[in-house]
Design brief:
By secondary structure, this protein is of the alpha/beta class. The chain contains 17 helices and 20 strands. Bound molecules: S-adenosyl-L-homocysteine. S-adenosyl-L-homocysteine binds next to helix 13 and strand 19.
Length: 469
């Protein structure tokens, strides 16, 4: 982030602009929404600027800017649309200590004006650091469409009600009240006119004051394989409402971004064989926070019910009489099989599919190798990188065909996804050569669909993954 967004207090502040043409008009229309004192320097001002001066909305000086004209100015806009004149006025303003913006000149500007969605007092500023103004405009248009025009009114009425709402206990109770106001009661009341909002707020407060505090609760949420778009709507909502988020190592930053800013974020990441937060500590954290009344999200990668040590955590929570529920997620086998364009089951090939772990708490995990070694078996092996040689040995010992296709998908659903297309025979060597450091899922008995397999043995998707036919 090269540019840090802030909201500047403008009341009583002085903002100076040099220029009288189109660029000046565009900026002035925005600036006049603020409560700043605006001075404009223009030898040939557009008629609109003269009208605004007549209306007392700005002070117009019908001349070029001179030394000292920007004294005490907070912001300065060089909007003459002439590089030499802009450089001259910017230098004057700069010497006076104002922050300078040269219109359409990112390089010489100390600040940029974002694209703005105005639902005053709700203001959304969109910036792309000058990289993609088109994108900023598209986002603005999208938000303009989505945010009801009454939002500003609701916020203004809500603001004047803040003191009253302070009667509610700080934290969750207050948040619930405001959420109810902005997303349910407020908009409903607005439909009957602005005058209906205040009585609705009074009623809502009475209702919330009579509620007993919500009890602590734990949601065991499947965070999916990493792509935030593969989160369920329920997972998003749980994250949005969580007071505390306790998350694993495989949860991507993009997903953590979706939690509320004020949420307490606790990383209990476990490295496969490395240092880890003990299961007891995790259990204790869940219980401690829920007992304090927090809405806790226990965020696990993929689906929480697949190799997630979920039951131990449920037992701990249960033992303390704390309420809980499970939000299913997309397990990495689903994401990985999608990446290679295959099905987990297929008529005439395999009517069942097994989810295996390469290692468990005791070390390498044992399975029904004889059954797995049969032709056309399909298995998804989790945590299978380190156990590849062991799995290979067992299968071959039980008569598996050495040419059985094996595919390893690393970082499924993420931008750095890679697919290793190999055979049971070559698996350990191919894995060693591929040097995979991310989470990887191994499919026994599945090769990438033919159309995809023309690429080299290890390949990252050249196109977004879903683009193949
Ligand atoms: N509950 C998770 C699995 C947890 S065990 C789920 O349902 O997916 C951790 C293992 O999951 C990793 O060692 C790896 O085998 C697999 N895994 C998790 N995320 C993955 C991803 N994005 N790509 C490939 N494998 C992944």
């Amino acid at each position: 982030m090269d540019h840090f967004p802030i909201f500047l207090a403008t009341q009583g502040q002085h903002i100076v602009l040099s220029g009288g043409g189109d660029a000046a008009l565009a900026k002035l229309r925005l600036l006049m929404k603020t409560r700043a004192r605006i001075s404009v320097f223009a030898s040939k001002p557009a008629p609109e600027i003269e009208t605004w001066e007549d209306e007392g909305r700005l002070t117009l000086h019908r001349r070029a800017m001179q030394q000292g004209d920007a004294l005490c100015a907070r912001l300065f806009y060089a909007a003459d649309e002439d590089a030499t004149e802009d450089a001259r006025t910017a230098a004057i303003a700069h010497a006076s200590g104002a922050l300078v913006n040269v219109v359409d000149n990112l390089h010489d500007s100390q600040f940029i004006t974002p694209a703005i969605v105005d639902r005053d007092p709700v203001t959304i500023a969109i910036g792309t650091e000058g990289a993609a103004p088109v994108l900023a405009r598209a986002i603005k248009a999208d938000l303009e469409e989505r945010l009801p025009s009454t939002l500003g009114t609701l916020a203004r009425i809500g603001k004047s009600f803040r003191k009253m709402a302070d009667a509610l206990p700080f934290g969750r109770a207050r948040r619930d009240f405001w959420r109810d106001y902005y997303f349910a009661t407020g908009p409903r009341a607005m439909a009957d006119g602005t005058n209906a909002v205040q009585p609705a707020l009074d009623g809502l407060l009475k209702d919330h004051l009579s509620r007993t505090a919500r009890e602590g609760h734990v949601a065991f949420v499947g965070g999916g394989p990493g792509d935030p778009e593969l989160l369920t709507l329920k997972a998003r909502r749980a994250l949005d409402e969580a007071d505390v988020v306790i998350y694993d190592r495989l949860i991507t930053p993009e997903i953590l971004e979706l939690a509320r800013r004020e949420a307490v974020m606790i990383d209990v990441g476990k490295e496969g064989f490395g240092p880890s937060t003990s299961q007891e500590t995790i259990n204790d954290l869940l219980v401690q926070h829920a007992e304090k009344g927090a809405q806790v999200v226990r965020l696990k990668s993929g689906d929480a019910t697949v190799f997630g040590r979920l039951d131990e955590e449920i037992d701990a929570v249960d033992a303390h009489g704390i309420g809980w529920h499970i939000v299913p997620g997309i397990t990495s086998a689903s994401a990985a099989v999608a990446a290679i364009g295959q099905s987990l089951t297929k008529r005439g090939r395999n009517a069942s599919v097994r989810f295996l772990t390469g290692h468990d708490m005791k070390g390498f995990a044992d399975h029904d190798w004889a059954a797995l070694a049969r032709k056309d078996e399909v298995a998804a092996i989790y945590m299978g990188k380190k156990s590849a040689r062991f799995v290979q040995g067992r299968l071959i010992m039980h008569g598996a065909d050495r040419q059985t296709p094996v595919t390893v998908i690393e970082n499924a659903s993420r931008p750095n996804q890679r697919v290793l297309d190999t055979t049971l025979d070559a698996l350990p060597a191919a894995l060693a050569a591929a040097d995979m450091t991310g989470p990887a899922l191994t499919f026994l008995g599945l090769a990438p669909r033919a159309a995809l397999a023309v690429a080299p043995t290890v390949h990252a998707p050249a196109h977004p993954i879903e683009e193949f036919a």
